[in-house]
Write a structure and sequence with these properties.
heterodimer, A: 294 residues, MetI-like fold, globular, B: 319 residues, mainly alpha, 2 domains, two-stranded antiparallel ribbon, 17 helices, 2 strands
Chain lengths: 294, 319
Amino acid sequence: MSVLRTRGERLFDAVNITVLCLVSAVVLIPFWLLLVDSFSTPESVYLREFRAQFLPVAWSITAYETVLQKSAIGTAYANTLFRTIVGTLLNTLVTIAAAYAISKRRLPFIRAFTFLVVFTLFFNGGLIPRFLLVRSVGLLDSRWALIWPVLVQAYTLLIARNFMFSIPDSLEESAYIDGANEITILWRIILPLSKPIIATVALWGAVMHWNAWFDALIYVTDHTKIVLQLLLRRVLLEAQIMSMTDVDLETDTAVTEETVKAALIFISIGPIVILYPFAQKYFIRGVLIGSVKG
Amino acid sequence: MKSPDAIPASQAPARARIDMGARWRLMCRYKLIYLLLLPAAAYFVLFQYGPMYGIQIAFKDFKLLKGIWASEWVGFEHFIAMFASPRFWQVLRNTVVISVLKLLFGFPAPILFAILLNELINVRLKKSVQTISYLPHFISWVVLAGIVYEVLSPSLGIVNHLVEAAGGRPHNFMADSDWFVAVVVISYVWQTFGWGSIIYLAALAGIDPQLYEAAQIDGAGRLQRTMSITVPSLYPVMVIVFLLRVGNLLEVGFDQIFNLQNPTIYDTGDIIETYTYRKGIIQQDWSYAAAVGLFNNTVGLILLLVVNRFTRVAREFGF
């Protein structure tokens, strides 16, 4: 805007930059401290002074070695990968197909169905009836209990539908006049135009599956099917909780080293931290489509 | 395929009286559409509406072996027990307190952040700050709670190191119910301020630059331009976001609180959803837990409907 800035404005800019850098630091520092922990020798974590927190006192990769040697972690990683890959594929397929269908508002029962979808945003059966349903259809202790009950997110479906509204009908009509059949139109016109929303739905689904833990906690007790987040909860939190409730720690297994906990965190959030800066625009697009009209 | 959204106008007047036969023919003609809808429809019927059948156990003495249908009706017994329980009122109070505090601090934070970001001239810096601020949004609360415990650890955490450096004594924040709510609210703001700013940044990007130029020619300083152009242009989004959050007042963030809480802080940190979980899934007091859940969902529904009315009014007034 202005080329010339007053002294006051320059001061403001300097303060603003400082404030925003501080805010960024506050977001990053907890992650950085853990990263440092994960690359330290187990003993040095307990010895360090405040000043020495920001870099390892004694470098070591033993924490990662320990983590990678534990077979439970390999199992948990594989289980999480399974639910993320299969779950995301099914999510995306079913959501996009349904979004296209409910974008045809004039067809019989489509509005009624859309209302049923919207209603679930306002009211649901609640935790206990949901649990009893999953139990009664025989999904308890099955990997599919982590996939079928979260197959379609109502909110995501409505956002995808709003995106479909933006594809002009005239495109389909002209293709129809040119003799294309329904499948061809879907495959050659709708799908290519829907790529951005497909990416958004898939990425949202993938992050949801990767981070999900509560369904695994209540539906799956078989420890060979444990997911990564639940394993993390056991290691990171449940030991803490026990230490605070005077539970006799002697009977419990050895407390996990701080460095190993930190390494475990980085192994679990690694894929997301590496990928999200590149996929940001797809995540953001979804937020913006959603904010236009519900 | 001829688009069904472009049914000729000549057919429109008859639509009101459209008979089942015509509907059926239309559905046959567009059967691919219904085929595409089928899996999602099955999902919603089974997994979203199926549980609604189970709501009745809130009015029954549910026994796992008998099943939902065969269990005996007990009327409002569980609701009476719930309202008579001091524990329930404590949990409800905690839910409302945490929720209101989250609204109080969590609502303005992204607005302020968006405005400050908007004032940044260096585009690269702006992009980096944005990307960093989004990071916690993508991390599960299992991990974030682990991080909170580490940061606040009495012996190893950076916060207590700072307290000591300032001459204070280390404090076990996570075992102190006076501090728990503060920990929840601060970690919530920390997680959400960045992601929440997206919608405001989009509104800011839509402001016509001519407005700023005109204001500048009229002699408005930067602060004046911010206060009289930038901030007012955010009002519509603010109203909608605010109302939405009020409507979801009873959704306090189960994932966050469940992972942060431990029994030492239940008196301030136990909320309706975590209470339902412990009563139902852990103690297997199914019917009572379902009653608590139903109460929660019904109040939530009423709140949303009221707020929805407000939102519509707000939209009519140009918001």
